[in-house]
Amino acid sequence: MFSRNLAFIIGINNYTNGISSLNTAVNDAKKLVEILRTKHDYQVWVCLDEVATLSNFHKFLFHILPEQVTKNDRLLFYFAGHGVALNGDDGPAGYLIPQDAKLGDTNSYLPMTKLHDALSQLPCRHFLGILDCCFAGAFKWSSTRDLLTSPEVIHQERYDRFITDPAWQIITSSASDQKALDNFYLDSERGQVGNHSPFAAALLEALEGAADIIPPAKNGKPAGDGVITATELYLHLRDRVEIPTEKCRIRQTPGIWCLNKHDKGEYIFLSPGHELNLPPAPPLDESQNPYRGLKSFDEKHSSLFFGRTELVEKLQDFVKANPLTVVLGASGSGKSSLVKAGLIPKLRQDNTETWCILPPIRPGETPLQGLNKALRDAQLPEVAAQNPQHNLAMSIDVWAKNNPNSKLLLFIDQSEEIITLCQNLDERKEFFQQILTAINAHGDKLRVVLTL
Predict the structure, then answer these.
(1) 184 shares its domain with 314
(2) What is the pLDDT of residues 317-343, one digit of tens each?
(3) In CATH, what number is assigned to the domain containing residue 298?
(4) Are residue 240 and residue 384 in the same domain, yes or no?
(5) 111 lies in a domain?
(6) E strand or H helix at 278
(7) Sequence-separated contacts (24+) of 237-243 with Cβ below 8 Å
(8) The pTM is what?
(9) Domain check: are 241 and 303 in the same one?
(10) DSSP H helical segments within 224-276, as ranges?
């Protein structure tokens, strides 16, 4: 996996030269060192208070780390102390404040751009930076890319990719859109939870296993898979820090980004005391293949239906506003997939309205039979051409009485088959009349979608 787990930890309370002291930064750093050493097998360099000077920063960044770190190592960089952001030509210019910095003298600060450039020169495959200071989000302006994916089950193959491919990630304690200041006031309050800052308290509990929650607990097995990715770590920090600090004078919103050296990897921690639970990836068979050729995507393939989010949302808005929608396009252009794998799952997830969705029908040679099958599956009365009392409008009336706060979707796929395959002219006419009468009677409840 990795030759060594290395960490460079900085914590500063005792500022001088006009800069106010902090209460918890050193304690945050010490506790983090303890957890990294005892529970994650890290070798740690520590810079606390008077040791954390600008000259020592330079010594570590430009001499010790380049000489010690190899390509098979992974490195964690952590800073707890003061930070500041000043207006710059290309966005907020962020600085970390060493212990011996002089208030107002930017030459005695460590520019985040300089920190970024020094770290980016290191040969290690995996790097994670964690900045717990005011204006930490200004690091985003030091040449980074946005990064956030939803947590999901980690299969063995994905885990192997995470540790094999480069992972260069940054987590910050404060929002990326923190307002940059022309001048600044270094507040002595970073917030405090017990003996730690809110961010550090959440970080420490996360590294002791609290961030390992995917997959959920099941069948007597604890939650988690034994792996904490940087993304899972960030999501835990965001949930544990952002909401509680909204009640305070200064809101903190953690952020995560990747450096330009990042590829498909993920910085990971193994959850202490948790056995690895990494199932093999599902077999790559036809059911998992996102390329269906000329076959349309069905609702069950919605997780494999990519790249149509904007179009699906536009279609959803149109369908909700109009009783009849015709999706028109050339054969093979994806009309059916757009409705079955895009619109229908979207409506099922709708939080503003409740939808009952009839099974999609293909008219074929006998469109009324297809319509009746959909009604039977929904346990609704069927239509009968010879009996005017048994029509689609009456069936929907029965449904509407039992579902007063819902809407009903009828999807007719390949509706051109009513003309091209159905040879019975009377049945064609009856089918169209059933649809038209139902729309006129229940325009507020019924939504009909045709592909053509």
Answers:
(1) no
(2) 999 999 999 999 988 888 999 999 999
(3) 3.40.50.300
(4) no
(5) yes
(6) none
(7) 237/171, 237/173, 237/199, 237/202, 237/203, 237/206, 240/198, 240/201, 240/202, 240/205, 240/206, 241/173, 241/198, 241/199, 241/202
(8) 0.64
(9) no
(10) 230-245
